[in-house]
Amino acid sequence: MALIIKRSKLPGSGKGLFTTKPISKGSKVIEYRGEIIRWKAYRQRVKEHKDGYLLFVHRNRCIDAYATPQYKARYANDANGLSKVASLKNNCEYIIYGVRCYIVSKRDIKAGEEILVGYGKDYWNCIRFNIKTGQAPQFKLNT
Fold this sequence. Notes:
alpha+beta, Beta-clip-like, three-stranded antiparallel sheet, 2 helices, about 15% helix, disordered C terminus
């Protein structure tokens, strides 16, 4: 896939992931890569403010892409996040295979479109809580 990073079409979302070529429905767009760590190690990184690109894999493992900006998958945004644009909907989903995760297209995606993938309700509940209380992230997942 030919993927590039540029300003997201979602206000306040910073950078986004875009395709320069069409992508067929059901295609693996990109692997979400980073350091595979235990959940306990991630909680420590949160306390040190060294977090922000977590992908929960299962009860005891996650992929932390915080220190790996070269891995483009971390720039995929969620159209259902804090800022919404009526014309933008998530066009991809995360598919987990063991401790690996891929962003997979849910529909045909045209060249030039932003890759948008749902982060999940738990993620956005945590973000809203943190904004409301001014606290450091406190991820509590239903596992």
